[in-house]
Amino acid sequence: MKLLNLLTFRPLRTVFKSLVILVVFFGLLSSQSLFATEGDGVKLAQASSQPSPPPKTRTVVADLLMIDGDFYVVRGERGEIRIEVTPETQLAESFTFGDRIKAVLLPNDKAIAITRAQPGEPIGTTGQVSVPPAAPPTPSTGPKPKRSTPPPKVAPSARIIVADILMVDGNFYIIRSDYGEIQIEVTPQTQLSESFKFGDRIKARVNPQDQALSIVRAGPDDSIGIRVEKGTSTPAQTPTPGEMIPESESTMPPQNDTSTTAPKGSPKIRTVVAEILMIDGNLYVVRGDRGEIRIEVTPETTLSESFKFGDRIKAKILPNDTALSIERAQPDQPLGTTTP
Questions:
Q1: pTM of the full predicted structure?
Q2: What is the C-alpha to C-alpha distance for residues 2 and 338, in angstroms, rounded to an integer?
Q3: How far apart are CA 254 and CA 130, in angstroms?
Q4: Which end of the chain has fewer CB atoms surrounding its CB within 10 Å, N or C?
Q5: 264 falls in which pLDDT band (50, 70, 90)?
Q6: Enclosing domain of residue 277
């Protein structure tokens, strides 16, 4: 009987020992994985708690070419840059075309601050500096400050350009100014005092899109250059449904109102001293101080004699380059154009 009991309980003991060994083994494995997971969580928490490096900025000194909504288009040492002005941008003042500005920019060309450059400050880009991250706002228990009123909107500034015409290409006048070549578009709303051509010195009033509002012939006292016609500042308004806010007079193109238009005076006569390059039928092609001119000779033109290639002549011509009279120029008369 005892022998039978021993044979019966011995396998049960063996199985029990095996189960105990397995439980202990899996318990050790689970504890190691738990420690590893906790260690990884600590590392991730430490990595997330470290502050990200602050963004780098650059300082750009450049000339302002155009203001297009929230963008300042400037010309720097490496070409044009479109600077975005955001509500957080610190503007020292209002700027217009031709101003030399100094802007602190983020890598995405958003402006942190824009000030006027010093008179002797050259165009260029300086090294980058790090901007410390903004501190989190501290909760305040006092009364909330009142929201400041938005700054007044400034009407787009028109420019007055005095320059020489290089080429007339359809509806575009290509002129040479202090800032290089400019292409002025002539629209149906442009007021033209007369027809212009290569070599004419004009005085044009253009909008920021380089569309001409008016073009007249420059006077003897008008020197080549560009000046800005300041726009009037108007408070920001929100139109109600069905209501339109009229544009300011400085931004509206001039209309051809015959009731208020002053009568035109007599056409201006120019005196041109130039050398004859070619005679083509009724046209004298001459070279003056501003390039070639084609002078038309009509039956009403008074000719002192017959002329040929190489002769230096003195011609009185109308704005449409029709000659009133042509005579031989004196030896001491220089090439040039005069207007009485």
A1: 0.31
A2: 144
A3: 50
A4: N
A5: very low
A6: 270-338
